[in-house]
Each structure stands twice: as C-alpha cells, then as structure tokens.
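FW: tagging you since you asked about this chain on Friday. Here's the raw sequence from the shared folder, copied in full. Didn't touch anything.
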Amino acid sequence: MYAQVSRPVRSERDHEARQRLIHQLKGQLATESPLLVPLNEPQPPRSLAAADRIYRQFVLTHRNSLVLPLFQQRHARSLLIDYGMLHTQNWSAIAYYTDQLVRGQSLDYPLITRALVRLKGHLPAGAYSALLRRATTVAEAEWHRQQQHIDLLDQQLAKVPTSRGQAVTRTLLQRGIAHLRADCIGPEVATLHRLAKSA
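HL: got it, structure written out here
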C-alpha cells in the first residue's frame, strides 16, 4: 500500500483550474504572438531591432490581457538570450526586458540575476535600485514558496513507514525533495541580496 500524499481538495481543484487556464492561454499566445522564438536556428528569424519593436507593440496592445504574463516570460527571455540583447550595451533595453521578466512572474531567476549583475553601474542608481528591489521581492516570495514545498514533502516523508512495502514511496519522495533542493533559487536570492548591499 502506498502512502497517501495529503492535499486539501480545494487546493487540488484550484491547481487543476489554473493548469487548464495556463494551457488555454498558451494556446492563445501561440496564435496571437507576433514573435517567433528561435529554436535550433543559427540566426533569429528577425533582427533585434524588429523583434524589440514588435515586442513593445504587443505589450502596449495587450496591457490588460491574461496572455501578457506568458508573453513576457517567453519573449522577454528570447530577446535577452536568443536575440542577444543581454550581450549588448543597450542598458535601458536590458533593464526593460529584465523588468518584463519580473512583471511577467518568470521563474527564470538565473537569467534575471545575470541581467541585474550585468546592469550594475550602467543605470541611474534609483532605476537600478527599484528594479533590483522588485526582482528581490518576487524572488524571495518564490524562494519561500519553494522552502514550504520542500518542508511539506519532508513532513510527508517522515510519516511514511520505513517498511519494505513503502520503499518505492520513500524513494520517490526523497528524489522529489532532492530535485526541489537542487532547483531551489537560494543562490540567486543570495546574489540579489549582495547586489542590494553594494548598490
């Protein structure tokens, strides 16, 4: 008999409804998005300047759309990485796309942190501090959520008997906990705190 992972029913329903909504929004984004994310291509399908212009226009015309956060997550990352914006000296554009990742609630904290490290000393102090503060607030909230999830799984693991019949359940929980700890954004949060202290 496998140990039951206890979750409140409402939370599970909320999660399922959220997943359905995200799936719908991803479909909507696939049809509405004017930008292509370069996949395994040596060159992006558009110039950086064209992609930047298209991105900003989409944000303006979809300001109140539920699809906007998904667009921000996917395409701000694409402009920074795939289109090479992060490696330019266009500091205001790098700041804009970093802010777009934060506003879109992107979970790509390694990229957000890299961008903030790169921006240090290249923006007016007030603008940099505000962006860093927003990113740190969001990252800390995600880090706390991750820690709560790990703690919950640790508690569930402690309740699973060590008998041979529970070995699979224990192993799965242990692997899940190890995976969550490995993906935890603690190092990025620490880097953001160091940047804040030196700003």
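FW: The CA atoms of residues 35 and 51 lie 7 Å apart.
HL: agreed, and Confidence is low (pLDDT under 50) at residues 1-9.
FW: great, closing this out.
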